[in-house]
């Protein structure tokens, strides 16, 4: 499989007053095309910091990061924005929709920013609205729909420019179990179609969707578990396997 993200000697430190807080410590990691990679770890282990450092959201303090064959280690904001617009997308726990735009406008707006073919963007929007069961609410505003519907809109918005990688930071963290499961179903379906996904989560049910699980402890990779492709009938055994993996590591 082709490596789409490669981190070598990755370190990230934050200066708080006179104290340096070393969050990531010499991480070496390859993430592969078409995988559903999940990053887990206890609070403060560096999960989100790692996600941001390998996705143009933040620059590392040391080491090297390649994203889709491109060195992004010390990337400037203009170049980073270009990569985010064309090659990657994000789904966060805080959904951050534009509340003065309708559901449809939230999706098309992101498409228009990067594509002058408005007819093509509109067609893609229709496809996403239908696929994610949003067509009936396309003219409503974010304040008029549920949190689960809002997160599905966020996924549609993330997909409008056909990203090579979707990064997720606790995308089901603010949702109840049933709506969270629906969002995970969508992400799983996309991965089955070849979409590369890298997701941070603390939830076993969400982690069970992974084909590969990376476990962080104190800013270092302390475990790497291959799970294979997700099958719903095996969900309980997958959760048990992850639990035993975490338990055996003393985490």
TrEMBL record:
Domain ABC transporter intervals: 5-243
Organism lineage: Bacteria, Bacillati, Bacillota, Clostridia, Eubacteriales
InterPro entries: AAA+_ATPase (IPR003593), ABC_transporter-like_ATP-bd (IPR003439), ABC_transporter-like_CS (IPR017871), MacB-like_ATP-bd (IPR017911), P-loop_NTPase (IPR027417)
Keyword terms: ATP-binding, Nucleotide-binding, Transport
Family: Belongs to the ABC transporter superfamily.
Domain of life (superkingdom): Bacteria
GO molecular function: ATP binding; ATP hydrolysis activity; transmembrane transporter activity
Cellular component, GO, one term: membrane protein complex
SMART domains for this protein: AAA (SM00382)
One Pfam family linked to the record: ABC_tran
Official protein name in the record: ABC transporter ATP-binding protein
């Amino acid at each position: 499989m082709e490596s789409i993200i490669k981190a070598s000697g990755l370190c990230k430190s934050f200066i708080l007053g006179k104290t340096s807080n070393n969050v990531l410590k010499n991480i070496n990691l390859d993430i592969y095309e078409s995988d559903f990679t999940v990053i887990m770890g206890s609070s403060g282990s560096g999960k989100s910091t790692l996600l941001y450092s390998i996705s143009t959201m933040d620059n590392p303090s040391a080491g090297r990061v390649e994203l889709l064959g491109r060195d992004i280690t010390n990337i400037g904001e203009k170049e980073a924005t270009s990569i985010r617009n064309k090659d990657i997308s994000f789904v966060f726990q805080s959904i951050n929709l534009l509340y003065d735009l309708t559901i449809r406008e939230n999706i098309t707006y992101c498409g228009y920013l990067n594509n002058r073919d408005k007819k093509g963007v509109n067609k893609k929007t229709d496809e996403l609205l239908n696929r994610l069961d949003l067509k009936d609410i396309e003219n409503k505003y974010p304040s008029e729909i549920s949190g689960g519907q809002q997160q599905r809109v966020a996924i549609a918005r993330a997909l409008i420019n056909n990203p090579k990688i979707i990064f997720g930071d606790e995308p089901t963290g603010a949702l109840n179990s049933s709506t969270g499961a629906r969002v995970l179903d969508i992400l799983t379906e996309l991965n089955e179609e070849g979409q590369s996904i890298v997701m941070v989560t603390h939830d076993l049910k969400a982690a069970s969707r992974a084909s590969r699980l990376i476990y962080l402890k104190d800013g270092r990779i302390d475990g790497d578990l291959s799970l294979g492709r997700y099958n719903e009938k095996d969900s309980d055994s997958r959760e048990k396997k992850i639990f035993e993996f975490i338990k055996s590591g003393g985490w």
